[in-house]
């Protein structure tokens, strides 16, 4: 079994998320505990919360999606911070995606999620689901043993075995270590073929400081790239939300992987060309081009 990749799947930070650490090298470790396995229709409902005790959580859904964003000091079950970058278009929300290319095939990109649920297939712009229309994986399997969860992704045209390992620190009797406000996502890519495969993983979550799913809205939110020692990523703040507001705070998407490319903003274009420009940029070579002179301050309200 040939399991080497040309570029061992670095995380590429496209602006924002709850603090995330990642390692993306193929891993031969086994033995993660599994108490329950979910597939089929159960994937629409199952979700495991990730986050330190008392710090709020974001849930990992059965399709590999991130849902139930509850990190702004109040419950918000079902809330997904999705934005319409240009009206009217389909809303774009949090996602991770895989770029892959072999010596004989051009680069391709697939969102690291299973199919959109059938109940969300209809709407005035086609499917109304957030991020609908993106290429996805054909199926997923969700395995859980809290605070550990795994999602396995399957697609007959993807030359890699893809698995997401997710957890948050939980040490019995240690409130400090168990109360770190972090969700840890680790995408494991294994090449079972005899051919080399170049791969990269990108993650995106809007900087929605100021909104909690009930009230409020972002106001002059700012994204900046930072590096400190072996950690690098995008740091999210707000210049407009009052620091005494219940929805104020900071967030970050960080990684220990290298090399890393990133964006701190979208390129503001008409219709849905904003997202198409990002997609074309990433599918070209698995890297991102920043737009530091455009829309550095995020002002778009949630959809």
Explain the overall architecture.
The chain has 303 residues and is mostly beta strands. The protein has one domain (5-298). Helices cover 6% and strands 34% of the residues. It has helices at residues 175-178, 273-285; strands at 5-14, 36-38, 47-50, 57-61, 66-70, 95-102, 105-111, 139-145, 148-154, 161-167, 184-190, 197-204, 221-228, 231-238, 251-255, 262-263, 297-298. The chain has a 5-stranded mixed β-sheet with strand order 7-6-12-1-16, covered by helices on one side. Strands 2-8-9-10-11 form a 5-stranded antiparallel β-sheet, with no helix packed on it. Strands 15-14-13-17 form a 4-stranded antiparallel β-sheet, with no helix packed on it. Strand 4 (57-61) and strand 5 (66-70) form a beta hairpin. The longest helix has 13 residues, at 273-285. The protein is globular, with a radius of gyration of 18 Å. The termini are far apart.
Q: Main β-sheet: number of strands, strand sense, barrel status?
A: 5 strands, mixed
Q: Mean of the pLDDT scores?
A: 83
Write down the Rg.
Answer: 18 Å
User: What distance lies between the first and last C-alpha atoms, to the nearest angstrom?
Assistant: 46 Å
Helix content: under 10%
Class by SSE composition: mainly beta
- What proportion strand? 25-35%
Instruction: Estimate nothing, just give the exact number of structural domains.
Output: 1
Number of strands: 17
Low-confidence stretches: 1-28, 295-303
The general outline is: globular
Order of helices and strands: EEEEEEEEEEHEEEEEEHE
Read across the widest sheet, the strand sequence of neighbours is 7-6-12-1-16
Q: What's the number of helices?
A: 2
């Amino acid at each position: 079994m040939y399991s080497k990749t040309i570029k061992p799947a670095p995380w590429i930070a496209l602006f924002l998320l709850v603090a995330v650490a990642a390692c993306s090298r193929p891993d031969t470790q086994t033995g993660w505990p599994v108490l329950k396995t979910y597939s089929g229709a159960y994937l629409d409902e199952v979700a495991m919360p990730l986050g330190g005790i008392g710090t709020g959580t974001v849930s990992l859904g059965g399709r590999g999606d991130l849902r139930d964003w509850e990190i702004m000091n109040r419950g918000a079950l079902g809330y997904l911070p999705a934005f319409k970058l240009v009206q009217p278009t389909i809303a774009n929300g949090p996602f991770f995606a895989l770029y892959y290319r072999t010596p004989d095939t051009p680069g391709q990109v697939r969102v690291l999620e299973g199919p959109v649920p059938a109940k969300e297939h209809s709407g005035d712009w086609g499917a109304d689901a957030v991020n609908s229309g993106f290429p996805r994986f054909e199926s997923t399997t969700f395995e859980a043993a809290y605070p550990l969860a795994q999602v396995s992704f399957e697609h007959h045209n993807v030359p890699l075995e893809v698995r997401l390992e997710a957890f948050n620190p939980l040490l019995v009797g240690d409130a400090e270590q168990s109360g770190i406000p972090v969700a840890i996502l680790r995408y494991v890519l294994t090449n079972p073929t005899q051919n080399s495969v170049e791969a990269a993983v990108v993650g995106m979550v809007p900087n929605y400081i100021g909104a909690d799913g009930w009230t409020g809205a972002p106001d002059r939110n700012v994204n900046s790239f930072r590096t400190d020692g072996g950690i690098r990523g995008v740091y999210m703040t707000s210049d407009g939300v009052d620091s005494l507001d219940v929805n104020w705070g900071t967030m970050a998407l960080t990684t220990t992987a290298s090399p890393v490319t990133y964006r701190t903003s979208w390129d503001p274009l008409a219709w849905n060309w904003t997202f198409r420009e990002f997609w074309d940029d990433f599918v070209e070579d698995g890297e991102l081009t920043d737009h530091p002179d455009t829309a550095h301050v995020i002002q778009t309200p949630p959809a």
